[in-house]
Structures are given as structure tokens and as C-alpha cells.
Write a structure and sequence with these properties.
Layout lengths: L6 H5 L13 E6 L3 E7 L19 H17 L8 E12 L8 E12 L2 E10 L2 E13 L1
Antiparallel strand pairs: 1-2, 2-4, 3-6, 4-5, 5-6
């Protein structure tokens, strides 16, 4: 059976808050292993006013951040890292395959593939309707 988290429960694990909390719910996760989250992008998102008024699309860097937050749920729910902060240490092989637009529901999956001390790597993919929108290798460091 899947482990799921509400927004309130997510905020007990990662420090992000509105307007920068970019995941709405976690559908499944295993501490230290992986997390699968959902983000519903509505037309009311603050960045659509300027990116771009005639053709609103989610900035790619925000999708990468949403993938990182998903990975942060996985790593920071692990007992030894609870209460800490995960920050970017690198982004490799990032590819943007399709635009994400208002009304899209994005499935965010990040699998932790390596951890050595406070540094780790995750393989991340964001999909819309089963089609890859963004994929990347994310490197992180645990702070505090």
C-alpha cells in the first residue's frame, strides 16, 4: 500500500512554503529511496502573468525545483536527515521535452540513486499525461 502525504504533512518534512512549495501531494514514497508527487498548475500561478502573457508556460527551472522538492521528501524523511535542509549541488543531463501549461497535472518522480554522507544523487522525471516533460539527474547536499 502506498504511503501518501498531504500538503500539511509535506511541510513537516521540507522547509518550503507558499509560494515556493511546488508539490501539492505525495502519492507514494519510501524514506531514503524515492518519492512520487503531484503538482496541479492552475492559471492563477503567479509566474504565468509574465511567462508568457500570450502563451503561459511553467518555467523549466520551476519544474526542476518541483522534482528536487519531491526528492527532498524522500531523503529528508529518512531518520538521520529529519529536520535538515537539502540544497542543490548540481543538475546534470537536464532535458525539457514538452511545455507544461495551465491546467496540467504533473507527476513528479525522483529516485535517490546514491548517498555518501551528506551528499547524494537522484534521477528525476516529470510527466504530463504519461509523456515526459522534464528529466534530470539532481545532485544534493544536506545542510545543518
Amino acid at each position: 500500500m502506498a504511503n501518501s502525504l498531504t500538503t500539511t504533512e509535506i511541510m513537516k518534512i521540507i522547509p518550503h512554503r507558499h509560494p515556493f512549495l511546488l508539490i501539492d501531494k505525495v502519492e507514494d514514497y519510501e524514506p531514503g529511496q524515492y518519492a512520487v508527487a503531484i503538482k496541479n498548475f492552475t492559471y492563477d500561478e503567479y509566474f504565468f502573468r509574465g511567462h508568457f502573457p500570450e502563451y503561459p508556460i511553467v518555467p523549466g527551472v520551476l519544474t526542476v525545483e518541483a522534482l528536487a522538492q519531491t526528492g527532498a521528501v524522500a531523503i529528508l524523511s529518512q531518520e538521520e536527515f529529519k529536520g535538515k535542509i537539502a540544497v542543490f549541488a548540481g543538475i546534470d543531463n537536464c532535458k525539457f521535452k514538452r511545455a507544461i501549461v495551465p491546467g496540467d497535472t504533473v507527476r513528479l518522480e525522483t529516485k535517490i540513486t546514491a548517498v555518501r554522507g551528506p551528499v547524494g544523487v537522484g534521477e528525476a522525471v516529470a510527466t504530463v499525461d504519461g509523456k515526459v516533460a522534464v528529466q534530470a539527474t539532481l545532485k544534493f547536499a544536506i545542510m545543518q
